[in-house]
Amino acid sequence: MTTLRHPAQDLLANIDGFRVEINEEKQRADIILSRPPLNVISMPQRDQLRVVFEALDEDGRVRVIVLRAEGEHFSSGGDIKGFLEASPEHVSKLAWNIAAPARCSKPVIVANRGYCFGVGFEISLACDFRIASETTLYALPEQKLGQIPGSGGSARLQKMVGITRTKDVVMRSRRISGQQAYDWGLATEVVPDSELEAATDKLVAELVAFSPIAQRTAKKLLNDTEDASLSASIELEGHCYSRLRSSDDFREGVEAFHGKRAPKFRGS
């Protein structure tokens, strides 16, 4: 019988620049950037992050994924020299790799503090929830290198805040604070730096309490209808609602509501 191998096997065997921690009791996985002091994200690391998100998406122990970093800064961005050394084929995959949090069916939270530049900002934009410390500075500084964002940053940002603000950030390499990001609707929350971990823990606990199948359905529905017309979005929402109506979790939710008790969701 032919033995098959997959490149992901080697990628997962040599993780560099970050680590993964799984807490089965809390049904939580943490992807922790760990290349201090600035947590620069290398070219190979982008491939590894994608594979890790895909692996955690299939891991039954995990309900919620948290992306965070060691130290004072989330990430100052990518390895600049790596862009010149990478092949055109590899560079063409940058946006696909960094979109891994968005493709993941499970909720993904990112905890930002300090510098969140370039690819650090782009992968944060691909997450579902962004909790920003008051020390956070977001930026897409590629214009200073004679380049533009290449991992989905300008496209995602424009969807979220509009063309005027996106041009201001991208074309001027402008930095915006965590508070400004919250005011623009980019950040889910902005908290004092000392409360970033506690706010993240609180959101994880909140999300874990919901039905896994309802969470997955909501995320996919919202992602799929972002560019759809209102009528198409309402139609798709109706189909999703109809499918969930026959789920065990919906029945449990209704029975728990009428029984005035906390529901015990199973994800089916």
Architecture overview:
One of its GO terms (biological process) is fatty acid beta-oxidation. With 268 residues, the protein is α/β, with parallel strands linked by helices. The chain folds into two domains: 9-209, 2-enoyl-CoA Hydratase, Chain A, domain 1; 212-259, no CATH class. It is 47% helix and 15% strand. The chain has 14 helices and nine strands. The protein has helices spanning 7-13, 43-57, 80-85, 88-91, 94-98, 100-103, 119-125, 153-161, 163-171, 178-184, 196-208, 212-224, 230-245, 248-258; strands at 18-23, 28-33, 64-69, 108-112, 115-117, 129-133, 137-139, 176-177, 189-191. The strands form two sheets. The chain has a six-stranded mixed beta sheet with strand order 1-2-3-4-6-9, with helices on both faces. Helix 2 (43-57) links the parallel strand 2 (28-33) and strand 3 (64-69). It is globular and about 60 Å long. The model has no long low-confidence stretch (mean pLDDT 93).
What class, by secondary structure content? alpha/beta
Question: Which stretches are low in confidence, meaning pLDDT under 50 for 5 or more residues running?
Answer: none
Q: Assign the CATH architecture of the largest domain.
A: Alpha-Beta Complex
Q: Briefly, what CATH class of the largest domain?
A: Alpha Beta
Average pLDDT score: 93
Main pleated sheet: 6 strands, mixed
Reading the helices and strands in chain order gives: HEEHEHHHHEEHEEHHEHEHHHH
